[in-house]
Amino acid sequence: MIVLQEARYALEIRPILGWRFGPVDLLLNPIIDFPFHGGPGALIFAPADRIAYNLSQTWALAVEHYADYGRFANLGPLGQQYHALFGVIDYNSDPLSLEFGIGHGFTAVSESLILKLIVTRSF
User: Fold this and answer.
1) Cα–Cα distance between 6 and 39 in angstroms, integer?
2) How far apart are CA 11 and CA 59, in angstroms?
3) Among 29, 115, 117, 119, which is most buried by a count of CB atoms within 10 Å?
4) How confident is the model at residue 5, as a pLDDT?
5) pLDDT per residue over 18-68, tens digit each?
6) Taking a C-beta distance cutoff of 8 angstroms, is the pair 76, 110 a contact?
7) DSSP annotation of 73
8) Cβ contacts of residue 13 below 8 Å, gap of 6+?
9) Half-sphere exposure of 62 (CA within 13 A, CB side)
């Protein structure tokens, strides 16, 4: 997924909150984008969340949701918000980890088919 920022300069606050319940992980990212123009009314709420089931220390299956609700001051109507749901498989090893997902957008501004691949190498 390619994320484009409308502002030339911006700040993103991306806390990651996580809980583990046995083999299940729950992650929440209440992401806030702050363009350096427009003041506090320009704050954008674009959260992400994930629930994963760890099959082993190496493999996991997950469902992820990505959203963009728009500006806090004027949240967009549902048809103008971005919502996408992904089915994801993770392979975690050392030094290489892979995350592959297939997603589908559910609103007019979301893509109908999205593929994602994240490759991580530890040094």
Assistant:
1) 15
2) 33
3) 29
4) 53
5) 999 999 999 999 999 888 777 777 888 999 999 999 999 999 999 999 999
6) no
7) T
8) 31, 32, 34
9) 22
